[in-house]
Design goal:
The protein is α+β, with helices and mostly antiparallel strands. It has 3 helices and 5 strands, in the order H-H-E-E-E-E-E-H. Strands 1-2-3-4-5 form a 5-stranded antiparallel sheet. Strand 2 and strand 3 form a beta hairpin. It is globular, with a radius of gyration of 17 Å.
Length: 168
């Protein structure tokens, strides 16, 4: 990355511009491409196992011509021993624009936020924070050695099953 592009990226990120957010989406798509290089061929529910690391679970929720929606998570036991998805991130990949967006800023969920037609700032802040989190988590997962390829996955279904929905 050249110096001009790096400075533009720093400015956009620091000022939370729309263009800067789109750059984050592009970086997330690129990172997911490294984590899921065989996405089109992968089963709908699988687990990446790496020694000395938590198992990373992937559920492919929806496959469409231009988009794919996935759920990435770890599972932790709660005080009753029930496995709970955390962070339970739903991410939509836009194949035509090479972007990936965390679908976290809902009224309930990973990063809940109230939607308002008059004040969009909390929603935009949530989109920035959730997508920056996704970028850091994807980098961390890749550094640990997680990859979902046909060669290194445990393709036994995870305990949480996602059904594919029909694309419109």
């Amino acid at each position: 990355m050249n110096v001009v592009k790096r400075n533009q990226l720093k400015y956009a990120t620091a000022h939370r511009s729309f263009a800067g957010l789109m750059d984050v989406y592009e970086r997330n798509y690129h990172l997911l491409g490294q984590l899921l290089p065989d996405l089109d061929k992968l089963p709908d529910s699988l687990v990446s196992k790496v020694p000395d690391s938590l198992d990373l679970h992937l559920d492919i929720i929806e496959r469409c011509k231009y988009t794919t929606t996935v759920l990435l998570t770890y599972y932790f036991p709660d005080k009753n021993g029930v496995k709970v998805a955390d962070p339970g991130l739903t991410i939509k990949l836009y194949h035509d624009t090479h972007q990936a967006e965390a679908l976290a800023c809902m009224k309930t969920g990973f990063m809940s936020v109230e939607h308002s037609n008059t004040n969009r700032e909390p929603y935009m802040d949530c989109r920035w924070e959730s997508n920056m989190f996704v970028e850091k988590w994807l980098r961390f997962s890749l550094q640990q050695g997680h990859h979902f390829t046909l060669d290194n996955i445990d393709n036994t279904s995870s305990e949480h099953h996602s059904s594919l929905t029909e694309c419109i």
